[in-house]
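Fill in residues.
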């Protein structure tokens, strides 16, 4: 006598996603995490519950290329960052949600595609190699080294093209910074800036200079743009590697973004 087996397909699908070798992540319209699978949670050493509602910017990921085809995952539990290939799509049932897929790649895969996926000036290293080299120099010679994570928050983003604004900021940063500095690839309005031989006491002046140049550029091009530039910073300390330096810059940026969000919400409640 044949037995019929009934499957709970919803539960089965959830189990399959959790044991997949792909890391899966769903972001809402504000780029906050609404769901991730077990593989992605394992990569970042947090539970899926801990990751829910965290902003994308809090993840230990840095874009390798302008298109976001490759990311580096910096993890406290690993010595070297892990290279992840990345692609994304809209969630059909909730069109303002995006699904992000990540797959571990060999570093050689990134090297083979670097000339196409990561445009660089001739003979200049990638920002990853550059940061590792400067950290090594700081360890050996105690040289000052600073790192900035710059983020632009656009309050009336529905009226402007984020891509065009980001491009203007990228060009402004290239004009204002030294050849010795390096700008990492932007990700949704976030920019990574590596500043060799830059001590903490020199950073305030540089940030003011960058703010002024960006303000002048954007005011000329987008008169009605309502925005705020927020900058997280970190300085090399004894025992740092690239990952810990990036983490402190990211944490500083997130703390300042949180303060800005609270201020904006208070302002909105007062005017309503």
């Amino acid at each position: 006598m044949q037995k019929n087996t009934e499957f709970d397909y919803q539960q089965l699908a959830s189990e399959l996603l959790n044991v997949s070798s792909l890391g899966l992540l769903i972001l809402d319209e504000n780029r906050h995490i609404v769901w991730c699978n077990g593989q992605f949670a394992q990569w970042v050493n947090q539970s899926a519950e801990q990751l829910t509602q965290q902003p994308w910017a809090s993840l230990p990921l840095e874009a390798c290329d302008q298109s976001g085809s490759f990311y580096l995952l910096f993890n406290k539990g690993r010595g070297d960052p892990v290279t992840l290939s990345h692609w994304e799509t809209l969630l059909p049932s909730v069109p303002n949600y995006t699904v992000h897929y990540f797959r571990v790649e060999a570093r050689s895969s990134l090297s083979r595609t670097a000339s196409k996926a990561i445009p660089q000036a001739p003979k200049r290293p990638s920002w990853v190699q550059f940061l590792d080299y400067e950290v090594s120099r700081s360890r050996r010679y105690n040289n000052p080294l600073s790192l900035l994570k710059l983020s632009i928050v656009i309050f009336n983003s529905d009226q402007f093209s984020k891509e065009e604004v980001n491009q203007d900021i990228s060009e402004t940063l290239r004009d204002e910074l030294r050849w010795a500095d390096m700008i990492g690839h932007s990700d949704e309005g976030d920019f990574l800036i590596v500043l060799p031989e830059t001590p903490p006491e020199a950073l305030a002046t540089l940030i003011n200079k960058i703010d002024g140049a960006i303000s002048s550029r954007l005011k000329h091009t987008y008169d009605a743009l309502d925005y705020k530039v927020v900058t997280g910073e970190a300085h090399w300390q004894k025992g740092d590697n690239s990952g810990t330096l990036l983490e402190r810059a990211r944490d500083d940026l997130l703390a300042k973004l949180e303060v800005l969000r609270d201020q904006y919400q208070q302002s909105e409640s007062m005017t309503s």
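The chain is about 40% helix and 25% strand.
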